[in-house]
Amino acid sequence: MDINSKLIKALHSRTDEYLSGTEIAVELGVSRTAVWKHIEQIRSVGYEIEAVPHLGYRLVKVPDKLLPDEIERGLKTSVIGKKILVYEKCSSTSDVAEEIARSGGKEGTVIFAEHQTNGRGRLGRQWISYKGKDILCSVILRPYMTPQNSSLITIIAAASVCEVLREFGILAGIKWPNDIVVKGRKIGGILTEINTEMDRINYVILGIGLNVNSSLKNLSSKVVKTATSMIHETENKVDRIETVRKLLKFMDHKYEELKRGKYSEIMRECIDFSETLGRVVKIRSGKKVYAGYAQDFDDSGALNLRKDDGAVEKVVSGELI
Ligand code: BTN
Questions:
Q1: Ligand 1: distance of its center to the CA of 191 in Å?
Q2: Which tens digit of pLDDT belongs to each residue from 40-75?
Q3: What are phi and psi of 174, to 5 degrees?
Q4: How many CA atoms lie within 13 A of 302 on its CB side?
Q5: Quick check: helix, strand or coil at residue 252?
């Protein structure tokens, strides 16, 4: 842990009283002059620190930024979030994650960005977000499973986002296969990209986009009628750090379940959150269009569609039209 991280940790440990320069200096193993220098450094990142002569320093406010020190504080996950990287700006967190994974990056590494210049959605679409407002992240996973089961990865991410939203009082559901919706409006999306070797997954880049504090006013007229955000739903500014910590915690738990082969449990949750099951739907998958009653999911995450003639057809991926 570097000195600034240690200083942030010390300040967090006592926010209701002042920490003297001497106490901090001892804890950090530096001089009092160096303490002041580091206080200035963390202030420049956006931390509000009160300094009172003869009393010391007190943390008043943490910046609204996705800082690794803040995300990692109190985060008790076993895989996901073991390494956290934050970019002020990048093309796409999934591009960065792909590069890191290709050069051997560890499973559970999460890449966040405050701003993406080329955010990607499924089917070649753009993912639009506003600087410093939302959650944009990609997770590197190396699950020991066949590519046929990779929909389960999308499902655990989508279910985790829904769980987080429920903790904020937002009743979200999953529109098959990867949209997170609230009363029909999209609040988030999952982009699962897999790299395979023989018949095994080499790595998965799990991209998650969640509209947090972007107001609908910020959205383009194209999506304003079909999109929503947490701030819009709760009418309150949302703490992104808290949201991220919850997200990583839920994903870590579900990923553990997945690794233990608890496919049916995962599917049960997905069924609970599904906004698609029990409806008559039309799905475009490649050049084919499927139509029928969305009956259930199988344990690999494929959707079972019951057609008019009673036959059941499996649809592995696609888009509701
Ligand atoms: C979709 O609904 O089509 C999926 C959207 C996924 C967006 C996220 S934002 C973080 C990560 N980086 C990207 O470029 N895309 C994913």
A1: 5
A2: 999 999 999 999 999 999 999 999 999 999 999 989
A3: -105, 120
A4: 14
A5: helix
Region 4-23 average pLDDT: 94
Nearest CA to ligand 1 atom 7: 209
In this predicted structure, which of 44-58, 139-153, 211-225, 271-285 has the lowest mean pLDDT? Answer: 211-225
The whole model's pTM is what?
A: 0.93
Amino acid at 225: K
Residue/partner pairs of 46-53 with CB below 8 Å, 24 or more apart: 47/8, 47/11, 49/11, 50/18, 52/18
* Ligand 1, CB cutoff 6 Å, lining residues: 92-94, 116, 119-122, 125, 127, 136-138, 178-179, 189-191, 207-209
Residue 313 pLDDT: 94
Q: Which residue has the tokens 């967190």?
A: 93
pLDDT > 90? residue 221: no
CA of 52 from ligand 1 middle (Å) equals 45
Q: Which ligand 1 atom sits nearest the alpha carbon of residue 179?
A: 2
Residues 92 and 118 sit within 8 Å (Cβ to Cβ): yes
Are the C-beta atoms of 189 and 148 separated by less than 8 Å? no
Task: Pick the closest to residue 39 from 16, 11, 67, 18 (CA basis).
Answer: 11
CA–chain centroid gap for 105, Å, is 18
Q: Which atom of ligand 1 is nearest to the CA of 91?
A: 14
pLDDT at 224 over 80: no
Please state, in angstroms and rounded to a whole number, the distance separating the CA atoms of residues 261 and 243. Answer: 27
Taking CA atoms only, the protein residue closest to ligand 1 atom 9 is 209
Give, using CA atoms, the residue closest to atom 15 of ligand 1.
120
Rounded to the nearest 10°, the torsion over CA 286, 290, 293, 299 is -40
Comparing CA positions, the residue from 84, 48, 53, 81 lying closest to residue 67 is 84
Confidence (pLDDT) at 1: 82
